[in-house]
From TrEMBL:
<dbReference type="InterPro" id="IPR019933">
    <property type="entry name" value="DivIVA_domain"/>
</dbReference>
<dbReference type="InterPro" id="IPR019932">
    <property type="entry name" value="CHP03543"/>
</dbReference>
<protein>
    <submittedName>
        <fullName>Unannotated protein</fullName>
    </submittedName>
</protein>
Length: 183
């Protein structure tokens, strides 16, 4: 099965077409015929493709992957609600929010581990600004979209926050927003 995404110029980086097509074929098969331990929303969110010259334009593939992730998440949430009831879904949301709020409750500049002065990490100021926006949403339902969180880009700074910790936090926030959206 071939997917038609526009390709970048011959000297521009893009995603390796064979990798994108192989993953999307597996995802489509899973979506059409769900099986245990198949592709999940988490798998879609954490899939990465190698870059090659003349590959698929990353922004377009990323947009398609976001829609695919949202579709898988909605289906998984509905399945959990149907199999275990809305109480189980509320419990899952409460557990995810407990983790998220634990990070949000920490003081500015200390929400995540720092990389130290020799290494670069995400700008603490920018990450903290996102955390405050997320806090406003969960405290008062101030509007925030999944794509605002998903597409945030932080500058690299010496002594910044450890990227892996921030990325894992963002994954939990996205999970919470998807549950909120699909309850």
């Amino acid at each position: 099965m071939s997917f038609t995404f526009p390709k970048s110029g011959p000297k521009q980086p893009g995603y390796t077409p064979a990798q994108v097509e192989e993953f999307l074929t597996r995802a489509r098969e899973q979506f059409n015929n769900p099986v245990e331990n198949g592709v999940t929303a988490h798998d879609v969110r954490n899939t990465e493709f190698d870059l090659v010259h003349g590959g698929f334009i990353p922004e377009i593939v990323d947009g398609a992957m976001d829609k695919l992730e949202d579709s898988f998440a909605a289906r998984e949430i509905l399945r959990q609600k149907n199999e275990k009831g809305s109480f189980a879904l509320d419990d899952r949301l409460a557990r995810v929010l407990e983790l998220v709020r634990g990070r949000l409750a920490r003081p500015r500049g200390k929400r995540f581990s720092n990389t130290g002065l020799l290494l670069r990490g995400y700008s603490r100021k920018q990450v903290d600004a996102l955390c405050e926006h997320i806090t406003r949403h969960f405290d008062s339902q101030a509007p925030i979209t999944i794509n605002e969180v998903r597409r945030v880009v932080f500058n690299a700074k010496r002594g910044g926050y450890v990227e892996a910790q921030v990325d894992a936090f963002i994954d939990r926030v996205i999970e919470a927003l998807q549950i909120e959206q699909n309850r």
